[in-house]
Amino acid sequence: MSTCKTAFSDSNAPAPAPSATDMSVTIAGVTFKNPVLTASGTFGSGLEYAEFLDLSLLGGVVTKGVSNVPWPGNPTPRVAEVSSGMLNAIGLQNPGMEVFIERDLAFLKTVDTKVIVNVCGKSVEDYLDVVRRLQNEAVDMLEINVSCPNVKEGAIAFGQNPDSLYDITEKIKKEAAQPVIMKLTPNVTDITQMAKAAEAGGADAISLINTITGAKIDIERRQFVLANKTGGLSGPAIKPVAVRMVWQAAQAVSIPVIGMGGIATAEDAIEFMMAGASAVAVGAMNFHDPCTTVKVARGMEEWCARHGVSSVASLTGIVNRQ
Questions:
Q1: I need a surface site. Which of 183, 194, 222, 237 has the fewest CB within 10 A?
Q2: pLDDT tens-digit profile of 219-267?
Q3: DSSP readout, 191-246?
Q4: 19: Cβ–Cβ under 8 A, 6 or more apart, which residues?
């Protein structure tokens, strides 16, 4: 099978010339070898993709959401293709933190990349259970998912109310041993209000955007395509909205922003950084091409070389410095 692992890690190929660009970025004291991460929920914990690509070529792996107990997720059908994207209503299905630690974290410890664990819950105590359990594990950062539109209780309520977001952020920060990223939902009236609430609560960084709520109807069956009726829209269709929100959030807070939403190419990723992101995460396009993350990372390095950029970090927020 031809994969990006063989394409980019061929032992018989000549070693690439040293890059003239410093591709590292630092967020909350954690230094990533490059700014390309995986978006939670689209990459498992890397196990599924390891046969396709060398995970050590990425800045970091952001795991699928982990809860304190196993979650079955939503009923099927849970995924639907739409124009320039997809709808999903998986419902954060996961085996729970014990299996995650024994299986997924054990694997990630063997990979030379940063590990960010996405944490989900239906109550504050659910989140805190996972955060406490991860205090002594080999985890570089935590990403707190308070923005999933497909969980009927818990996460989305925290993500849409600034007071609730402030409260849960503050409580998690008191328990967390690792830097905390709060993942924000786009399904709000004012993204800057939510970004400020997360910062005020003590967040070390924020990430955005999560999916946009959408729906699809099968007109022949006269039914919603998803059993959940609505789902989260992701993919290239949401990129302009994501870039706008990252730009707004980055101007509203002083903590780092991780941008995501429809990134398919290196040019997309650079656009997010210019809007204010310190790093980026690739999501839905992993399903289309499992090599997308590596292609984006390599493409960014090549773009920087062509444009004489000595440090990729210098691109962050450049549109506001013109």
A1: 222
A2: 999 999 999 999 999 999 999 999 999 999 999 999 999 999 999 999 9
A3: HHHHHHHHHHTT-SEEEE--PEEEE-EETTTTEESSTTSEEEEESGGGHHHHHHHH
A4: 301, 305
Report the catalytic residues. Answer: 148
> Between these two residues, 75 and 4, which has the higher pLDDT value?
75
- Which candidate, 179, 182, 178, 150, places its Cα nearest to that of 168? 182
Phi-psi region of 244 (alpha: psi -120 to 50; beta: other; left: phi over 0): alpha
Structure tokens at 166: 């402030």
- The span from the CA of 165 to the CA of 288, in Å, is 33
Whether the upstream peptide bond of residue 209 has omega within 30° of 0, thus cis, is yes
In order of start, what are the domains of the chain with their CATH numbers? 4-13+23-74+91-210+236-320 (3.20.20.70)
- Which one, of 322, 297, 294, lies nearest residue 312 by Cα? 297
> For the whole prediction, is pTM greater than 0.85?
yes
